[in-house]
Design brief:
655 residues, 6-stranded mixed β-sheet, 19 strands, binds (S)-3-Hydroxyhexanoyl-CoA
Length: 655
């Protein structure tokens, strides 16, 4: 038998075991191994049924993504799966961990499926810019209702075993030992007769053309320029309108075409970039400090979000506010966030209660005396933060890690407010902190390897993507964002309007444009930031006054009902504001610009070139360790479209 697939036979049942750590990704050797296993099973007439199972932590997690850049080598997965369907005996897939992509397609080719209760099943190919390439779109709608098939294939989101049972994707959920129950199922199946192969069954539903047109409209709008979700829908459509063999061929051709696309290359790059964000060399082999007990200073949106994120990861959290009333409000805010997770089905009632039992809000720093790590999330003001750090220096254990959640301020200066600067790091969370995946780990000059290693360990515990950043104004993300935001204001002075800039960014694939984002976040913090260097700004430096003029009028964004846009009666979507246009035209006139129209491409060229120039400076100065770290930051913190791979990837940079 070819490694990594083995066959053992007991009491007439073949146990076919795949073992390809870490996630049983499908390699050429595995495809050959499965094909050989089918031949072995078919040749041995003492075998009455087969159970397909995987060693290690998971069922097959999909095709080996590393093979996608190379020409496909036979045997091809679709042929392997047809061989299973055509086997002399019935095959049962015994699924634990995750059955994803080609892994789920493998399970769909079996004659029955049983899963462990915690198993997850999905077709995430769209997230890699692909559609399933081994019959997933053909077999799936022959087992589940069309809407369920569309949801799985076009979002790529996996479903839990219980839901899979409900939809018909699997036949059973194991109550005890998965493999034993799979063998029992195989024996039963052998007695009652092998069911018809899934691809031979009729589709569960064949919706009309109107249905498909409406679905395509919705999915295209949601995809924001990413091709694969619409392609996946079209593959499903073909799977119920074409003869099955033609549907298989059409799906495969679509998969191969997309595999070579720029979007697939970008998404593949992102997949590995997210898993390979850089760590400083000196943390290699350094043990992080314990992380059971955390402290958070400040119970505003950021502080409460950080506390909730920690609680959701099983940590114990003491939050400190200035007064008892503020502490009570913080308690409410954290409770509200956890309750939101409960309402969305992400947390059971018991888990929410247990998380709240690990939380306490206080009005005294003394509550932080036994903490392993403390994150301050107070207002963005150096004097205030220095005060907080000197208090932390007083009350915390000498070995506790002290972190600041600043977005812009000098972490070296904050570290110097403590007697042990080596334990101070920056932990820049993004709002909402319990949802956003990115965590910039800011490294002040004095930070010890152990403090940095603990920052990375915290990111892992909170299931965040850590990116190491050096100290500078805005670190990686906000520094690059400030640069292109400035450029956007210059574009306004030269002829465009905020709604045109935002529309260009949305066309490029952003969910929101820069002006709508500023209105949502509030314009006042950035205004305060701009005032800091105002006195020392060189007289010849180009500076747009438009945003300042808006702030001076009290147009601080959505929360004040007016910002770059007007928000009537608390509406979430803004409308173009004549008062803003007037200010822009006045500024153009004052500066002597003859306003000219901008196309969406011209706007994006300007934004991208400034973004890329600043990103190159960030890399050259060593603020980011590698180009892909910058891309991960811009995609996960600033809405850069993932299917374009990030600004550095778009500019042709590779690590
Ligand atoms: C597909 O199947 C196409 C078919 O329709 C058609 C075929 C013809 N390949 O994420 P982790 C590596 S498309 C290669 O840290 P976790 C990963 O890089 C594929 N490598 O673990 C990492 O390596 P390292 C559809 C892979 O427990 C290590 O495994 N499938 C693959 O947090 C551990 O990964 C997917 O899109 C792969 N497919 O999460 C599933 N998967 O240790 C993609 C993982 O060197 N995978 N690696 O850094 C996942 O979603 C997660 O890895 C998984 C485990 C949930 C499985």
């Amino acid at each position: 038998m070819t490694f990594p697939v083995t066959v053992t036979v007991e009491n007439g049942i073949a146990l076919v075991t795949i073992d390809n750590p870490p996630v049983n990704a499908i390699s050429q050797a595995m495809r050959q191994g499965i094909l050989d296993a089918v031949a072995t099973v078919d040749a041995d007439t003492s075998i009455e049924a087969a159970v397909l199972t995987c060693a290690g932590r998971t069922f097959v997690a999909g095709a080996d993504i590393r093979e996608f850049g190379k020409p496909p080598e036979p045997p091809h997965l679709p042929d392997v799966l047809l061989a299973i369907e055509a086997s002399r005996v019935g095959w049962i897939a015994a699924i634990h961990g995750t059955a994803l992509g080609g892994g789920l397609e493998l399970a769909l080719a079996c004659h029955g499926r049983i899963a462990a209760p915690e198993a997850k099943l999905g077709l995430p190919e769209v997230t890699l810019g692909l559609v399933p390439g081994a019959g997933g779109t053909v077999r799936l709608p022959r087992l589940v209702a069309m809407q369920d098939a569309i949801d799985m294939v076009t979002t790529g989101k996996p479903v839990a075993a219980a839901k899979a049972l409900e939809t018909g994707l699997i036949d059973r959920v194991a109550k005890g030992n998965l493999v034993e129950e799979a063998i029992a199922y195989a024996v039963e199946m052998n007695r009652s007769g092998k069911p018809e192969a899934v691809s031979k069954r009729p589709p569960r539903e064949t919706p009309d053309d109107v249905f498909w047109r409406e679905q395509e409209k919705t999915i295209a709008a949601r995809a924001r320029g990413q091709d694969s979700p619409v392609e996946a829908l079209q593959a499903l459509h073909g799977s119920v309108t074409l003869p099955v063999d033609k549907a298989f061929d059409a799906e495969r051709a679509r998969f191969l075409r997309l595999r070579d696309s720029h979007q697939a290359a970008a998404l593949r790059y992102m997949f590995f970039a997210e898993r390979n964000t850089g760590r400083p060399r000196e943390t290699e082999g350094v043990d992080p400090q314990p992380l059971g007990k955390a402290g958070v200073i400040g119970g505003g949106t950021m502080g409460a979000g950080i506390a909730a994120s920690m609680l959701l990861s099983g940590m114990e959290v003491a939050l400190v506010e200035q007064t008892a009333e503020a502490a009570a409000k913080a308690n409410e805010r954290v409770d509200g966030i956890l309750d939101g997770s409960r309402k969305r089905g992400l947390l059971s009632d018991e888990a929410r209660d247990a998380a709240m039992a690990r939380f306490a809000a206080h009005d005294t720093y003394d509550a932080l005396a036994d903490r392993d790590i403390v994150v301050e999330a107070v207002f963005e003001d150096m004097d205030l933060k220095r005060e907080v750090f000197s208090e932390l220096n007083r009350v915390c254990r000498a070995d506790a890690i002290l972190a600041t959640n600043t977005s812009y301020l000098d972490v070296d200066e904050l570290a110097s407010a403590t007697s042990v600067p080596s334990r101070v790091i920056g932990l820049h969370f993004f709002s909402p902190a319990h949802i956003m995946k990115l965590l910039e780990i800011v490294r002040p000059h004095a930070a010890s390897p152990s403090a940095l290693a603990t920052g990375f360990a915290l990111a892992k515990k909170l299931k965040k993507i850590p990116v190491l950043a050096g100290v500078c104004d805005g670190f990686i993300g906000n520094r690059i964002m400030s640069a292109y935001r400035r450029e956007c204001d210059f574009i306004l002075e030269e002829g465009a309007l905020p709604q045109e800039v935002d529309a260009a960014m949305r066309d490029y694939g952003y969910a929101m444009g820069i002006y709508a984002v500023q209105d949502m976040a509030g314009l006042d913090i950035a205004w305060a930031m701009r005032k800091r260097p105002a006195a020392t700004r060189p007289a010849d430096e180009r500076y747009s006054r438009i945003a300042d003029r808006l702030c001076e009028l009290g147009r601080h964004g959505r929360k004040t009902g007016a910002g770059w846009y007007a928000y009537q009666d608390g509406a979430k979507a803004g409308r173009p504001a004549p008062a803003v246009e007037e200010i822009i035209l006045e500024e153009s006139a004052r500066l002597g610009y003859e306003r000219k129209p901008f196309t969406a491409d011209e706007i994006m060229d300007r934004i991208l070139s400034v973004m890329q120039a600043e990103a190159r400076a960030v890399l050259d100065e060593g603020i980011a360790l590698k180009a892909s770290d910058i891309d991960v930051t811009m995609v996960h913190g600033f809405g850069f479209p993932r299917h374009r791979g990030g600004p550095m990837f778009a500019a042709g940079y590779r690590d």
